[in-house]
Amino acid sequence: MQGSKLYVGNLGYSVTSQELEGLFSNYGEVRQVTVIEGKGFGFVEMSSQSEAEKAKEALDGSDFKGRSLKVDEARPKSENRPSRGGQRGGYRRY
């Protein structure tokens, strides 16, 4: 693991940033929490790489509010978006 920012997936849609911060604060200092509303995932930034690793090991696959969490190292934004193949405007060529 190279960074201190974690991706947290399979969240219930009602989970708040405060709840996620409370969960991760058991493993170190939480710098920032972002929950993407209506998408079921978010990001947690810990204060160090070692704290992020500790949180990932402890929480990946654990139950939180009836759902099995998916915790992994967050990837840079450029890797998160798949290519759209050059399509624009929603039109297709036939």
Secondary structure layout:
Layout: E1 5-9, H1 17-24, E2 30-36, E3 41-46, H2 49-59, E4 63-64, E5 67-68, E6 70-73, H3 77-80
Antiparallel strand pairs: 1-3, 1-6, 2-3, 4-5
Number of strands: 6
CATH level 1 name of the domain at 5-69: Alpha Beta
Distance between the termini: 45 Å
* Largest sheet strand order: 2-3-1-6
> Largest beta sheet, briefly?
4 strands, antiparallel
Secondary-structure class: alpha+beta
Order of helices and strands: EHEEHEEEH
- Principal-axis shape: globular
Summarize model confidence as the mean pLDDT.
Answer: 88
Strand fraction equals: 25-35%
- Distinct helical segment count: 3
Would you tell me which CATH topology of the domain at 5-69 applies? Alpha-Beta Plaits
The share of residues in helices is 10-25%
Written description of the protein model:
By secondary structure, this protein is α+β, with helices and mostly antiparallel strands. It starts with a strand and ends in a 14-residue tail after the last helix. The longest helix has 11 residues, at 49-59. The model has no long low-confidence stretch (mean pLDDT 88). A hairpin with a 2-residue loop joins β4 and β5 (67-68). It has a domain at 5-69: 2-Layer Sandwich (Alpha-Beta Plaits), CATH 3.30.70. The radius of gyration is 16 Å and the shape is globular. It is built from 3 helices and 6 strands. The strands form 2 sheets. The chain has a 4-stranded antiparallel sheet with strand order 2-3-1-6, covered by helices on one side. It has a two-stranded antiparallel ribbon with strand order 4-5.
